[in-house]
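Board notes (copied after class):
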Amino acid sequence: MNPDGTFGLSAIPVILAALALILIAVVISLRLRVGVERSIVWAAIRATVQLIAVGVLFRLIFESSLAQLWAWLWVAAMSSVSVGVILRRAPRVPGITLPAIAAVAGSAVLSVVVVFGFDVLELEPVRLVVVVGITLGNAMPSAVGGVAQTVSLVRSRPGEIEALLALGMQRPHIVRYVTPQSARLALVPHIERTKVVGLIALPGAMTGLLLAGVEPLDAVILQLLVMLIVLGAVAVSVLATVVSVARTAVGPDMTLAPWAAERDGAG
């Protein structure tokens, strides 16, 4: 980093080092025929373009006199994209739209109310976008994982579900049968990351505050607040979407829904 707080040419060695790691991963994937090399390269390119675009937008928007309005529009855009990503994971599952919207909107509202409603931070455009972005950035992938796990589980066990229905089980019983495993598989990665915070992983928000010169205890408290909000948002989002998908696996006539009878991956 340069003395004026910018990176400039000093960032080039770091970028090259990161690219070297990506290249190694691509080579290993090719040699072992894992088949993820294109995904790795595309993810790197897409992240680079998106982050550069975000940096430019931050500078243009938040120097505007309408910064507050632009910030709320940005939050709405992030929420819309998050809902769209969740829906793409279950294109043939009926009735998932409203739960997906509720899960995403609830996560965003929760983060705004706790952080800004209780005056933890002063409501400013940049802070609004960052706080909501952190929350949705964690809740959305976990909800997507929950949807994918539930769809896969239902489609891989149609016989078991039909047998339960034949024995007189109702929709709530099927939900309780499907939900636990799907929810656990979706939540475990985030729960495990939360458990090792401070032991193995140092969260980005806390690290950024420390580098900015904030008192360590203040940085830790703010990070703890954000971490707890994110954990709660992730759990609620996953449970809401998993339960919603599980409910639609049973049709109104208490038989297996058409989407649930498809082979996994057919949708």
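Comment from the instructor: The mean pLDDT is 84. The chain has two domains: 1-61, 67-261.
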